[in-house]
Amino acid sequence: MGHKVKLYMFSGSAPSLTARLMLEHKAVDHKAVHLMVGPHAFGMLGRGFETMTVPALKIDGRRIQGSREISRALDELAPQPPLFPADPQRRREIEDAEEWGEELQDVARRLVFCAARRDPRAFLSIYRHPNPLMRPAQRVSRRLVTRLATAGHRATDRAGERDLARLPARLDQIDAWIAEGLLDSAELNAADFQIAPNVALLLRFEDLAPFIEGRPAARFAQRVAPEFPGQVPPVLPPAWLAPLRAERGAPPGSGPTGTGEALQATAYDDGHSSVPQRPDARSLPSWRYGR
Ligand SMILES: N[C@@H](CCC(=O)N[C@@H](CS)C(=O)NCC(=O)O)C(=O)O
Questions:
Q1: Homologous superfamily of 5-77 in CATH?
Q2: Is the CB of 152 under 6 A from ligand 1?
Q3: pTM of the predicted model as reported, rounded to 2 decimal places
Q4: Cβ of 53 below 6 Å from ligand 1
Q5: Distance, CA 259 to ligand 1 centroid (Å)?
Q6: Secondary structure E strands in the chain
Q7: At what angle do helices 190-203 and 216-224 cross, to 10 degrees?
Q8: Domain coordinates of the chain in residue numbers?
Q9: What's the gap in Å between 140 CA and the centre of ligand 1?
Q10: Do the beta carbons of residue 38 and residue 95 sit within 8 Å?
Q11: What's the pLDDT tens digit per position in 201-242?
Q12: Does the CB atom of residue 54 touch ligand 1 within 6 A?
C-alpha cells in the first residue's frame, strides 16, 4: 500500500490499544510512537494535533485524533476487513455501541486515577513505559500527572464510586451484546475493538477482576485484547465495591477476595491517601507492579 502511518500512544491507554488492535487487524504497517503519560500532552500539541489526547494517527502527514475517528479513517485506508458493516441499520448499531464504549473508556480511566491516588504501584504499573530509561521520570512525575489527570478527566472519588455502582449494568450490556452477536462475532468490528480493551483494563484491577471473570465480557476481552499491561493492587475502598458484591448476591462486606473486612475509606481527592490497605495488598510482590 505504501502509506506512512504513525500511531501516537502510551502504554496503559485503553483507546491507544483500540487503535493498535485495529491497525493490526487490518495488517496496516505502522510505527508506534510511545509517549510518556503526562508530558505526552505537550508532545501532541507540539506535533500539531488539535487536542492533547492519544490515540492519534498520522497517515502520510494527515492527522487523525481519537479512537472513533481512527476506526473510520482505517476503513477508508484499508477497507478489508471492514470495521463497520455495509448494512446501514447494522452500521448504526455498531456506531452506537462504539460510542457507548467510549464512555466505558472514561469509566476505566477514572478508576485508574482513583487507584493511582491511593497507591503509586497502580500508576507505575499501568503506565509503565516500555523504555526502562523513561521510568525514573515516570516515578518523579507520577504524583503531579495523577493530580492533573484527575482534574482533566474529572476522576474524582465521587465519580469513581458512581462508576462502580453502574458497572454491573454496563457489564450486563456487554454480555447482552455478545449474546445478540453485535460483539464477539466471527468478524470483529469497531465496537469490539473499542469496548474490549476497557474490559481488559478493568480486569487488571485486583478489586474488580473477581466480579468480571466468568462473564462472557471477560472471555471477549481475553479474545480481543489479551494483553493489557499492568496490575492494580486492591486499593479501592471496599464500600465502593458493595454494588458489585450485591449483584453477585453476597452480603456487603464479604468480598470475593475473602478478606471480608469493612475498612473505612479515609482517602479523598487531595491525593493523600490514608486508606487502610488490605493485608494481601502489602504482601504482593512488587515486580507485579513495575516498581
Ligand atoms: N475518548 C478519546 C480518548 C481521549 C483520552 O482521554 N485519552 C487519554 C489517554 S487514555 C489521554 O490522552 N489523556 C490525556 C489528556 O487528556 O491530556 C478517544 O477515544 O480517543
A1: Glutaredoxin (3.40.30.10)
A2: yes
A3: 0.87
A4: yes
A5: 35
A6: 5-9, 31-34, 56-59, 62-65
A7: 110
A8: 5-77, 91-278
A9: 22
A10: no
A11: 999 999 999 999 999 999 999 999 999 999 999 999 999 999
A12: yes
